[in-house]
Amino acid sequence: MAVISLTMRAKMPKRGVIAGELGFIIVDNFPRASEATIHYLDGKVEVIEAGEAEKAFVYEVEDMNQCILNKVKMDTVELSMDVMEIMDEVRARWGIRYPFE
Description:
By secondary structure, the protein is of the alpha+beta class. It contains two helices and four strands. 34% of the residues lie in helices and 23% in strands. The protein starts with 14 loop residues before the first strand and ends in a 7-residue tail after the last helix.
């Protein structure tokens, strides 16, 4: 089961929560986080740190470059293209153009 909440107008915290049978994981500043906190049912808490939030776009560009150079088949690219098409259609219907004029 998954619950996703998205708001376009309200300023909400960017927090990801993953719940499982043995505990839950909280990722603040999602999707540009550099740490996650694991909360186990026995009360133990573990913090995992990786990367730097300021370099998030650099990591994405490097990853994409590696996929293109190595001709890696990524299932998520098709999903991303579908989302881009939907967003383009919504923007066209709403009369939104980039750059804003």
